[in-house]
Write a structure and sequence with these properties.
flat; single chain; alpha+beta; two-stranded antiparallel ribbon; 61 residues; 31% helix
């Protein structure tokens, strides 16, 4: 395991989150309160690693 690197918080840069809304990409920071709440309550897709491995094992032989 590689050693973890830590950086000084003063050197960090704020990451701006963008999302697609109504066909356009916009930063979430521009959303109103209701739209921000909706964005943060969304469920994001998470790939099932075990099912993917079974699929690839089955069809890659």
């Amino acid at each position: 395991m590689a050693p973890q690197k830590s950086t000084n918080n003063d050197k960090r840069q704020r990451c701006e989150v963008w999302t697609r809304c109504m066909g356009y990409f916009r930063p979430v920071s521009f959303f109103n309160t209701g739209k921000k709440s909706e964005h943060y309550s969304r469920k994001h897709f998470q790939e099932c690693v075990a099912a993917n491995n079974n699929f690839s094992d089955k069809f890659n032989t």
